[in-house]
Each structure stands twice: as structure tokens, then as C-alpha cells.
Amino acid sequence: MRRFRSLSVTFLLSTVLLAVQTPALVRELSFSERVAAQEAIERTRYVNQIGATEPFEEAVPREVLASKVRTYLAQSAALERMWHTPVTGEMLQRELQRMTVGSRMPERLQELFSALGDDPVLIQECLVRPVLVQRLTRNFFAFDAGIHAEARQEAETLREGLASGRIDPRTDHPARRVAVIVRRDEPVREVNEHRDEIELAPAEFDRLRGLAPQRVGAIGVRSDERASYALRVVLEEQADRATIATYLFPKRTWDAWWSEARSELDPAAVATVASDEVELPRLSALGGGDCRPDVWENGILDDLPPRRAWHSAVWTGSEMIVWGGATGNWSTHDGMRYDPATDSWKPTSDVGAPSGRSGHHAVWTGEEMIVWGGGYLASTGGRYDPINDTWLPTSTNGAPAGRWGSSAVWTGEAMIIWGGNSEGGVVFNDGAR
Q1: Pairwise CA distance, residues 382 & 355, whole Å
Q2: φ, ψ for residue 308 (rounded to 5)?
Q3: How far apart are CA 433 and CA 422, in angstroms?
Q4: Tens-digit pLDDT profile for residues 95-152
Q5: From CA 30, how far away is CA 131, in angstroms rounded?
Q6: Alpha-carbon distance 40 to 100, whole Å?
Q7: Which CB contacts under 8 angstroms, 24+ apart, belong to 316-320?
Q8: What single string gives the DSSP state of each residue in 266-291?
């Protein structure tokens, strides 16, 4: 009897330990199930898109849905293969928690949950996973020394030349840009890309000055920034004023790298890891539900767009798209999209984007964001399609003279441009549509 009890206890303990150590069975999602879930997500967003007139099936073809699924699965594969960071169930749960607590449009997030049948596996795998893997892959890519080895070596070679005196920081160089920054207590109200000085509020002046060496003429360390490697040298300095030479060595762009890398990745190899046992939060429990007046919310703290001024921004009904603008004394041609429902950012494609510019304008047509003008009196523009993440140029036939600081409106059929400034301070009193 004693031996029988001992065996019974041993069997019971073994059963309990086995139950603890054995993970819960995961429901595997097929590719077609993922595409169907993507369709439910995109339909919800499209219904809320301002000015959308096309039938959903024409605006968002099935191949576009399948491509979006293949992309987030390929990015999941890249995380595991290239950066040894496989997506786990716990990662999806934590991202779901971040998303629901941080949502700035909880009612929209609830719509997305409902569109997926409030199914925890579909929500984690098809709504949460794309946001998570896009952010992680972009971050790993941006600071991967191997991928950006060529630009890194160029920066090191130039630094050696500056340090040895073979290269004079006061002479022209293809990678060199010079900015004169001036501390100004009053708000800066006017944009002029042709100005010789950049007037900055004290905090921003201190931030930019702090990126360069403290001593005039000293060669700064190589700075590993998101889109480039940078070297800075202070050429002159007076009270509340500094002339800084910045050498920028652009890193490889994501679009160029991803177009090659994705062909080596197998989306079909990505397994479902989300658990059915995750309890979804109710609308009343979401963190973004309470709006406090006169208080700024920081939102998500990673993957924010680079600091910029005189950029454009449009609201689509589901996302805010920020594009262009000035960083220092040069302009950028990149952009970011912010989804307040999931409190997440993702970049716009650079392929086919207009040249860098600031002081331009943008309008939302219901299907595209149109940007035009600005820059160095550019009379060019571009049309951005957020569903396909693609750019097309605007026609230059009959376009008005290039200008910055003009006004722009969308009538429902045309964008009307009027006024603006030209080089030398001339003010336009004409326009075009």
C-alpha cells in the first residue's frame, strides 16, 4: 500500500510538471486566413478614409492584400535569420498591451478588433505582428554595421583626413554642408531656405550645438545616426552663434536593401505563435479613452520621425502623413505615417519620391497625398498612394513657377496653388490648378 501511494504521488507530480512545461497548443493560421484578416483590417480603414470614392475591391485589390501579408511574414523571417530575434507569443502580447494602452483612437482600435471577430489569434498575428516586425526590422537595419559598412568606412577615411590635416574643413567637399546657427528668444515665423543663418529657439540651438565638439576646430567623433554617419567641426563661434561644418555619409536606404534581401526570405517558414488564451481589453479599459484638455501626450517614443521644420502633414481619416521639411539647413525627402489607433509610426517609401524640400504644401484627395512646390523654388511635386506605398510624379506641363510658402487647397477635383515667395523676396500674386 505504501509503495502504491508513493507511485501515485510520483505520477501526479510528473503529470503536473508535464502540464506546466508543455506549452499550450497554438492554432496555425494559413496564408489565406491571413489575407482574409488583412482584408477585414483594410476595409475598416477604408470606410473611415476621408473622401474615398472607389469601391473597396478596386481601391485595394486582392494582390495588394496578399503583398502586405507576404511583407510582414518576410520581415518576421528577417528578424530570426538576420538578427536572431524570432517573434514570440510573449512579444506579441506585450505589443498588444502597448498598443491598447497607448491608443489615441480606442474606438477605432475596437472597430479593428471587431472586424477580426475579437479573435485573439487573428488580432495578434494580423494586426499586432505587422506593427511590431516593421518597427523591429527598421531599427535593426538602421544600425547594422555590416549592411552600412561602405558608408561607415567612408566616414572613417574622411575623419582620418581631417585629423591629419590633409583635408581642410573650411574647403568644399561633396559630403560637407555648413550651417550658421543663431540663438533667438523670439519665435521664428518665416521660412527661407536661401537664408545664410538658421535662427533657433534656445533649446534647439543648444541641442544642435551639443552635437558638435566643444572646441573650435576639433574633429568630432563619427556619429552613428539613423540614416547616415556624420562628422561635425565647429568652424567659428561667438556668443549665441556658431558656424558648423557637417559631413554626412548616407547609409543604404531601406527600400534598396529590402528589394534584394526579401528574395532570400521564406514567408511560408514563419509559424503562428499567438495564443488563444490572451484576454482582449474592453473599450472602456483602453488607455486613450480619456481626453484631458490642454495636455500634450507623447505617444509612442520609438520610431518617431527625425526632427524637422516647415514640413507638410495631411490627415487621411486613419493616418497622419508627415513628409519633407528642413533638418538644419538642408531638406529631406522622407516621410512617416502615424496611426493613432495603434499608436505607431511607419515610414513612407522613398522610391519615386520628390526631391527634398521644405515650405511646400500637401493636400489629401481621398486617395492620394499630393505635394508640390517648396524646396529651392521647385515647380515639381509628387502623388503618394498610402495603400500601395508608392509615388508618382505630378505633371510639369503648365506648372506655375517654383515657389515656397504658397497656399494650397483641394476642391474635390483639383488642387489650387496660389501666392508664395520667390528668390529675392518677390511675392507671387498668381496661381494654378
Answers
A1: 9
A2: -160, 165
A3: 19
A4: 999 999 889 999 999 999 999 999 999 999 999 999 999 999 999 999 999 999 999 9
A5: 20
A6: 19
A7: 316/49, 316/50, 316/364, 316/369, 316/386, 317/48, 317/49, 317/50, 317/51, 317/52, 318/45, 318/48, 318/49, 318/108, 319/386
A8: -GGGPPP---TTPPPPPGGG-GGG--
Query: Mean pLDDT highest for which of 1-10, 68-77, 335-344?
Result: 68-77
Cell of 43: 476595409
C-alpha cell at 341: 489607433
Residue 26 has which C-alpha cell? 497554438
pLDDT level of residue 398 (50, 70, 90 thresholds):
confident
Q: Is the pTM above the cut of 0.70?
A: yes
Q: Which residues are registered as beta bridge partners of 132?
A: none
Cell matching residue 150: 561602405
Using DSSP, how many helices (H) and how many strands (E) does the chain show? 11, 18
Q: Can you give the pLDDT at residue 308?
A: 82
How long, in residues, is the chain? 433
Residue type, 385: D
372 grid coordinates: 508640390
Is the Cβ–Cβ distance between 191 and 358 less than 8 Å? yes
The C-alpha atoms of residue 95 and residue 371 are separated, in whole angstroms, by 33
The pLDDT value recorded for residue 13 is 44
Amino acid occupying residue 429: N
Q: Please report where in the chains the cell 528578424 appears, as a residue.
A: 79
Using DSSP's 3-state secondary structure scheme, residue 76 falls into helix
Residue written as grid cell 528574395: 263
